[in-house]
Design a protein that fits this description.
Elements (H helix, E strand, L loop, with lengths): L1 H32 E5 L14 E5 L2 H4 L7 E5 L7 E8 L4 E5 L2 E4 L2 E2 L23 E2 L4 E5 L9 H4 L2 E2 L3 E10 L5 E2 L10
Antiparallel strand pairs: 1-2, 2-11, 3-4, 3-11, 4-9, 5-6, 5-8, 6-7, 9-10, 11-12
Organism: Candidatus Roizmanbacteria bacterium CG_4_10_14_0_2_um_filter_36_35
GO molecular function, one term: signal peptidase activity
Catalytic activity: Cleavage of hydrophobic, N-terminal signal or leader sequences from secreted and periplasmic proteins
Length: 190
């Protein structure tokens, strides 16, 4: 009887150790490596639809530099409890100009085959038609792919790099859209 009790206690302890180990690994991965997010709203259509589930890498930018065209998740400059998903358009020191609904970075027209609507501007927003905007150091200029429905740097100016949560690298729901998120910009302009 004593032997059976020892066996049962040993078995239960093994299960508890496994559960604690797996739980600890999950917490470490979630807090420091990657985070699941759900897209809410239409600001990134047609690239992402509201309800899509994505994985955000918290470590990508520890190993490589930010690139124009990357899709990122960051804390809203207006309310840090809210997370936004947008595309990087300009890097620190770049000059962004939106003129006649077209986007220029460092006087080069950005070919944006991932958007379906012209780039509009907001009354009272940060960006004015044809007026160059220089991105401060340690900040990035971001915009949603659905320009008419996106609150982004056109409205609230560039965002601090420190507010980045990470780079969106994978969509895991819905099933018909599962896959890696690819940067659509040519490597020569990233």
């Amino acid at each position: 009887m004593l032997n059976i009790t020892k066996t049962i206690i040993g078995f239960v302890m093994d299960i508890l150790e496994t559960v604690v180990f797996v739980g600890s690994m999950f917490i470490v991965v979630y807090l420091f490596i990657l985070t699941p997010n759900q897209v809410k709203g239409a600001s990134m259509e047609p690239t992402f639809d509201s309800g899509d589930y994505i994985l955000t890498s918290r470590v990508t930018y520890k190993f490589r530099r930010l690139e124009r065209g990357d899709v990122v998740v960051f804390k809203s400059p207006k309310n840090p409890d809210i997370e936004y998903i947008k595309r990087i358009i300009g890097l620190p020191g770049d000059v962004v100009t939106i003129k006649n609904s077209q986007v220029f970075v460092n006087n080069n027209l950005v070919s944006e085959n991932y958007i379906f609507a012209a780039t509009n501007l907001w009354d009272g927003g940060c960006i004015k038609d044809g007026v160059p905007y220089t991105i401060p150091l340690d900040e990035i200029f971001v915009m949603g792919d659905n320009r008419p429905r996106s609150s982004d740097s056109r409205e609230f100016c560039s965002v601090p790099v420190q507010s980045l949560i990470g780079q969106v690298f994978y969509r895991y729901f819905p099933a018909n859209k599962i896959g890696t998120v690819i940067n659509p910009l040519p490597s020569s302009i990233r």
